[in-house]
Design a protein that fits this description.
15 helices; alpha/beta; two-stranded antiparallel sheet; about 50% helix; 2 domains; Rossmann fold; about 10% strand; 6-stranded parallel beta sheet; 8 strands; about 350 residues; single chain
Amino acid sequence: MNQHTRFNLPICLAVEEDAFFHSDEIIKRYIPEIIGQKTIVISEQFLIDLYKEKITDISSDFGNAEIFAMNDASFDEAVAIAKKVCIEDIKVIIGIGGGRVLDTAKYAAHVSKAVYICMPTSLSNDSLASPFSVLETEGKARKTIACKIPTAIIVDTNMITNAPIGQTLSGIGDTIAKHTALFDWKLSASKTSENVEDFAYALARMSYDSVYHCDEKNLKSRVFIRILSRALVMGGLAMEIAGSSRPCSGSEHLFAHAIEEYYPQIKISHGLAVAMGSIPACIFQGQTPEGLINFFHTYGLDFNPKTYGITEDMFADMWYKARSVRKGRITILSEISHDRAQLNNIYNRMVES
């Protein structure tokens, strides 16, 4: 019998045009009790400058909330913000930005027990609603730390339409990675006493299906933005219900972590790195990668390692390192021994596709 732990779900998910300009009305509809409580807005200086009008408007809607520019997406910064929140009796944290800001604000809210409202400026990954924050610890090292998911998520479709297209492609990559992650989760469960939580599995699969089978091919259309936002939130909820990142993170994520840790000079977003990793992961799992390759071509997602300065030797080394980048996580990489000829073959196939 699977013992269910209690999990949290967001009270509100609003995906609307110009949502940032009437965020207070949205919150009033769902959680009226927090209106009028002391609030702080967390963002980065360049975003505060770029979206001055919107952020100032949000601040005044929430009782002239202090606008705080964070320095970095680190554990120390998140804890420093939490300390400020506790000392100053702040009850609500609003995070406005990309994954770095949202992860920092989310962890600060978790530590300080403040209500957290998540307002993304881009849809680059599923950290939006996930019960984890990825934070810098020492130097370049980053750690995934469990925390509480947002109380409310407000997506302004105009903001996402105007975000760099690469960030939206990154969000697509993180969503499509669930294809290989779910395979790895089932594989791991078959080797251990771990259970595959059916509802979490179904949510992650729906998240993947909704984007993979989407009829709307225009990344800037409101329909597509709504589908992608919901898909990323579903991924976050799947992790919350499973109590781990397993529904959304498998061998393709280990590949991305190997790049982040061992090849910091490679400039590639997390979502594009996992999209690139999902093609070899598919092959290692004995699945055909043709569907993913065609899908990536349709949306213009570039998975060619050469584009990012990854050579054949680096590519092979990334996969060797991926095996040990997260101790104790069983994936297809635990089952196979890497054959350099096969890795070269996959690399060349990805370069030529």
